[in-house]
Amino acid sequence: MNPIDTGFSCPIPGKGEDPWMSSLVARCAQLAMLLEVSASPKPGNVDKEHNYPDTCFEHFVASSVSVYPVLELAARSSSGIGALIRSAVRESSAWQQGGNTHFGAFLLLIPLSMAAGNLFYSHKESYKLSPEEFEALAARAHAFVRETDCEDAVEFYRAFDVAEVRVNSVDEFNLGDPESTAELREQGVTLYKLMDIARGYDLIANEWTSGFGRCLEGARSITEFMQAQKSRAENSVLNCSGTGINEAIVYTFLKLLSRHRDTFIQTKFDKDTADHVSFRAGEILSAWEKPSGHTRDFASLLPAIQEFDSELLKKRINPGSTADIIIAGLFIALLGGLRF
């Protein structure tokens, strides 16, 4: 079998005639993953400044590059989400030895890439989403995940054979037990149903069942931050250094982390630890934001962010689910024409 031949994915008629469209979607997804891991400091997570003992910055880079064919196929597909996820995990694992890097991100990027391809297929002029179309993108992704079937659930479980993922098992369906796939078929459990069961304690599952709202929140935050920075630069007599994208990602990371408990932390540690991390992120965010809604200079907040980063790294507390949401938000923003 070809490494990316999922066996289930169904290309949308006519899409094969325009490979540039699916390539654009895949490149936006790749760039989103690369920008997220490069942004620093994102408290607790691997970035270009520091690694974990077994997982390094370069592992994330290799994973981001390796999954291009799967993402490109997803943009041309209207079904087979589970098989696409397993293919993405397999490609990622084949190109790096750092274990799980992007499992949660794949769960978001695959249906969003399918939705982007579907939406762009109806575009007549250009492959670019207007801010008003962000909602339509999320709605189409939600429609795709709701249409998943039992085979998607089985493929999702098979992905755990190659991905080293820390996750709560879904009630009676043990993710580490191969016999669970037989039970899934016997009971006709779909992948969406599995996510619905897990939505109360898993941030990514909640995105699937609630319509990708936090991904949209991330996209809007990043876009608005970049627009505000551009406006300040145009009205300033000083020369501004940098592109602003690093600050936009760090700002949005803290914003989402403060508003939504990171379930990766909750799974690895406990609810109280996750709540404490959200509280600390909120403290820094409050100091960063002015009452008018504008932001203070990034450099003035950098010591506090670095201290928070060191604290989490020392305790090996990594907000992985929030990083996955950031990737999805960046992806949507890039589809909307974000450039820097």
Question: How are the secondary structure elements laid out?
Answer:
Layout: H1 19-38, H2 57-66, H3 68-75, H4 81-95, H5 103-121, H6 134-146, H7 150-158, H8 180-187, H9 191-198, H10 203-210, H11 213-234, H12 245-259, H13 263-268, H14 271-288, H15 298-315, H16 320-335
GO molecular function, one term: triphosphoribosyl-dephospho-CoA synthase activity
Organism: Methanosarcina baikalica
Pfam family, one: CitG
Characteristic terms for this protein:
340 residues, mainly alpha, Triphosphoribosyl-dephospho-CoA protein, globular, glycosyltransferase activity, Triphosphoribosyl-dephospho-CoA synthase, EC 2.4.2.52
Report on this structure.
With 340 residues, the protein is mainly α. It has a single domain (19-340), classed as Triphosphoribosyl-dephospho-CoA protein. The chain is built from 16 helices and no strands. It has helices at 19-38, 57-66, 68-75, 81-95, 103-121, 134-146, 150-158, 180-187, 191-198, 203-210, 213-234, 245-259, 263-268, 271-288, 298-315, 320-335. The termini are far apart. Residues 5-16 have low confidence and may be disordered.
